[in-house]
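Thread title: Can someone regenerate the structure for this chain?

I was given the following input by a collaborator and told the matching structure tokens would be attached. They weren't. Posting the sequence so someone can regenerate them.
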Amino acid sequence: MITGIYTIRSIKDNKILVGQSTNVFSRLSQHKFHLRKNTHDNRHLQSAYNKYGIENFQFDILFACNEEYLYSEENYWCNLLNTHNSNFGYNIKPTNPNGNYRHSEETKLKIAERLKGYKHSEEFRKNCSIRARGHKKSIETLEKLRKSCSGKKHTEEAKLKMSNSKKGKPVKFSKEGRASVNKAHKEWLALGLKNKKIKNKLTGIVYNSVSDCLKELNISTSAFYRNINGKGKFTNKYKLCYVRTVK
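Best answer:
Regenerated them for you:
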């Protein structure tokens, strides 16, 4: 597996697309797949491919580097080769040496209009499913995702949309979530509790029901049961337990 910068070059007019990936060969294969299926998200590259054919394109590794330098190297080569200029290259998405690029509002509107009503084919979905089987994110990647989401809060509008989208739909748990629910339920039955009052041992606050607890703390059902079992990301924030009630 090679991490670095790659190019897709048209032999006909020497126009170049510069890209970066932690797995260059895999990324180039994805480009070829979408170009063959006429589903590539870069319309300029797709048009050139449809016009000239695969035999008139070269897919090469330009520069191998460590993952931490990917954005800076991509930005360097795009500027050096002038690939954002449609006369010389196929790059559409802006680049930034720190990876903090932003599309202009005009570009965002164009992308939104182009994608309206677009749906992936069943074959594409099936291939994505096959490629994803057994794939697990590395600890490093999970930590990056955690840090990127740390401190972020959904707006009230977003919360309302998520709530409305789930109304009337049955709750689906992961295997881990289902196991946590079953374990907590068995514990509740074994204690012979008359109700499901919940106590936060850190604050001493008692909630009359699970639903009241979920609403007040703004956490999901699966997060609640994981916390009851001493697991999950809220263990340092909440210490939830059932109130032991006499039969």
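The beta strands are 4-10, 16-21, 57-64, 198-200, 206-207, 240-242.
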